[in-house]
Amino acid sequence: MDFTFSEEQQAAAEAARGVFADVVPDAVPSPALTTGAVADEFDRALWSRLADADLLSLLTAEEYGGAGLDAVALCLVLRESAKVLARVPLLENSAAMAAVQAYGSPESRAALLERAGRGEVVLTVAASGRTGHDPAELAVTARQEEGEGTDWILDGVQTAVPWAYDADFVVVPAHTPADRTVLALVPRLHDGVALGEQFSTSGERLGELRLESVRLAARDVIDTEGAWEWLRELLVTGTCALALGLGERVLRMSSEYTSKREQFGFPVATFQAVAVQAADRYIDLRAMEVTLWQAAWRIASGARGALPVSGDVAVAKIWASEGVRRVVQTAQHLHGGFGADVDYPLHRYHAWAKHLELSLGPAAAHEEALGDLLAAHSLG
């Protein structure tokens, strides 16, 4: 078996490292010192560089100007972005584009994919539901009125939509009277659409999306069975990649600091208690990595397994949530008071880690989902 990445996947990661090389985590005010958002919008200059490097269209087919790569390549790029806390909607935009390409109407693909790949249009996804704990697809209703054509009418509220104020379109899961889930491509500027300002632990501005009798044409609604589940699995897996990249950078910061910080005339990194804690966090990261690639490979290849792909995604998110939390907590401990210094970037990584830990469900939620899968599928 060959576990190495393909040349194309490695090239995407190398291009990402080049683009993110000059990005500094403290380019915006500290979330610890800011009552609102740390910035009015995401990093548009970085977004343009990503577009120029063809990293916004990794999953898009060549006919739409993309690279035609897979979820593994996307996760490699997301991993690099998290190391510098890149303030761009790379995950949401890429996942939404992939869903439009795989399940959207020809009109939607023609209107959005090439422009989004060039950075001219920004897409995001409303995936947190009404409260952040309930299923996202139950927070909004979608119905087609009889005798009035094929338009869809949407009503409901989605909370904590990332980059909502910067996006041109929000992909919104909604449930129908027939108990099916559809995906609606909702323009941010549209009759019946309103946003309420919210803030994440990382200091980024989120949006509470309110939909009141929002009317959309049939071409802007994806009603293919399984489309939302596929999109959510890609989002969760991408979140795991972000957690991995962040955790790797934090462990490196801890290693560099403890190697220089001396006590009793010796670097604290040479103390057994410090070395054991760092080793445990290294094991966490390797577990996060192997479960991430398993989930990304299942999504990319469509390979069958003992459990549906959602099982591998749940395992990856369990490790990502628990692992990234332990990594940043240990880093804070090993840095001592220096870790809380707002002039040092570690506290920013801690804030982002907490956001990633809870995004799209904490470990407990995915443990419950995994238990349900194990109960429903015989592994014998």
Question: What would a concise description of this structure say?
Answer:
With 380 residues, the protein is α+β, with helices and mostly antiparallel strands. The protein has helices at 7-20, 44-52, 71-83, 90-103, 106-117, 227-260, 272-301, 309-335, 346-358, 363-376, and strands at residues 123-125, 140-144, 152-162, 169-175, 181-187, 193-199, 205-216, 221-222, 262-263, 266-267.
Walk me through what this model shows:
- The protein is α+β, with helices and mostly antiparallel strands and 380 residues long.
- It contains 10 helices and 10 strands.
- The protein has a 4-stranded mixed beta sheet, with helices on one face.
- It has helices spanning 7-20, 44-52, 71-83, 90-103, 106-117, 227-260, 272-301, 309-335, 346-358, 363-376; strands spanning 123-125, 140-144, 152-162, 169-175, 181-187, 193-199, 205-216, 221-222, 262-263, 266-267.
- The two termini are 24 Å apart.
